[in-house]
User: What shape does this take?
Amino acid sequence: MTAKVRVRVGDRQLALTNLDKALYPDASFTKAEVIDYYTRIAPLLLPHLRGRPLTVKRYPDGVTGHFFFEKNVPAHTPDWVRTVTLPAPGSTKDREEIEFAVVDDLPTLVYYANLAALEIHVPMWRVDDEGKPLPPDTLVFDLDPGAPATIVDCCRVALPLREALSEDGLRSYPKTSGNKGLQVYVPWDRGEGTSDYARRLAGRLAAEHPYVTSVMAKSARTGKVFVDWSQNNPAKTTVAPYSLRANPTPTVSTPLLWAEVESCAAPGQLVFTAPDALARAEEHGDLFGPVSA
Assistant: This one.
């Protein structure tokens, strides 16, 4: 392993460690490359993280090793990282409050990348300057295919979902989950009620299309696309756009053009790795820009 390397990121000094460790061994993709990816994608990623309490999925020994979710900021977190303390109803660790990090800048993003926080998850709401929760500003539908269904089937479901949202005066934006599914995001300015709205619309799609289910039981998903509306619960998080995923290769949750959804005929068409995501950023800019506006 390489020695500790001190670098300046913006106006902060950071100590980076184990830069040559392969966090994606099958792809020979190292921690240095993870940090490089997050640094280069930061102009597109940071607007989607600002103000959102952070949950990360850390893989200190790479994607083939032990991992853990982390909400509470680590004890050694620098004092310049923005944190907010929020109630934690239903905490699996019986905590009444959690001190979350908020990734508002590049140094904080690099700090977490150095912790092997490969996956970045955030809620559909933000906090204000005082750290108080605001109403949701985003609605999400997580389209999850039950084998043998694939992301091709998710695309098939996303199109009537887009139409239904449009009928309600809402614009929608698709992205891959970076795993096997598809997610459709909607900028939301109608206050509370995202969960109820999403549940009703998911139920309507399930009633109209036999290949759709809005039932959470895994037994109901075989060969169908589960429209998961529950991610709009304020206690839940969804993988952020441009986040890496912990797969054998460094796949990315990637914003899409609707034309790509319309033309998808094979799952491989919508698999994008970190280099692909950077190339797409050069070509398209932030396809999710309106979601964070």
